[in-house]
Amino acid sequence: MFPPIVSFKRVALNLLFPPYCIGCGREGYYFCDRCSHELAFIPPPVCRLCGRPLLPDSSCPGCIAEQSPIDGIRAPFLFDGLVRHAVHELKYHNLRAIVPALAAFLHEYLQENPLPGDVLVPVPIHRKRLRERGYNQSFLLAHELHRLSGLPLVDNCLVRTGYIAPQAKTASVTERLNNISGAFTCTNTSLQGKNVILVDDVSTSGATMNAGAAALKSAGAAAVWGLALALEL
Question: Of 56, 65, 135, 190, which has the fewest CB atoms closer than 10 Å, so is most exposed?
Answer without folding.
Answer: 56
